[in-house]
Inverse folding.
């Protein structure tokens, strides 16, 4: 998987164009992950929220049993963080323990395929 340049570039919350690019690209990546997991649009929700205390934009793919997050701290150089965890419903924001994803491994086809198969297992999906 090739990551968008907006994930690697530094941005500030005051730069609305950069924030829009990050938002667009994060949602696009999460939709691709959902599609590769064979989820239908009614099986997941993509949400965005901001953690003001830590100054982090969070984009989340939420199913009934899985939460995948992409976090982009403002002003970070290549600071995109990706993680996943279990949850009990789409309203469960805490869920299980965070499992960090190594973004360098996702740049390879095998690394991305391994992540998708792991997410399928965590989500309770076969195939």
């Amino acid at each position: 998987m090739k990551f968008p340049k907006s994930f690697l570039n530094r941005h500030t919350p005051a730069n609305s164009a950069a924030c829009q690019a990050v938002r667009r690209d994060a949602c696009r990546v999460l939709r691709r992950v959902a599609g590769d997991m064979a989820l239908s649009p009614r099986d997941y929700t993509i949400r965005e929220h901001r953690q003001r205390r830590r100054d982090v934009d969070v984009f989340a793919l939420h199913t009934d049993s899985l939460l995948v997050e992409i976090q982009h701290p403002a002003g970070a150089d290549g600071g995109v963080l990706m993680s996943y965890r279990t949850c009990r419903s789409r309203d469960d924001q805490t869920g299980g323990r965070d499992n960090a994803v190594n973004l360098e491994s996702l740049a390879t086809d095998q690394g991305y395929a391994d992540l998708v198969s792991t997410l399928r297992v965590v989500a309770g999906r076969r195939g």
Summary: The mean pLDDT is 83. The two ends are 20 Å apart (CA to CA). Helices lie at 5-8, 16-36, 103-106, 109-123. The chain has one domain: 5-123.
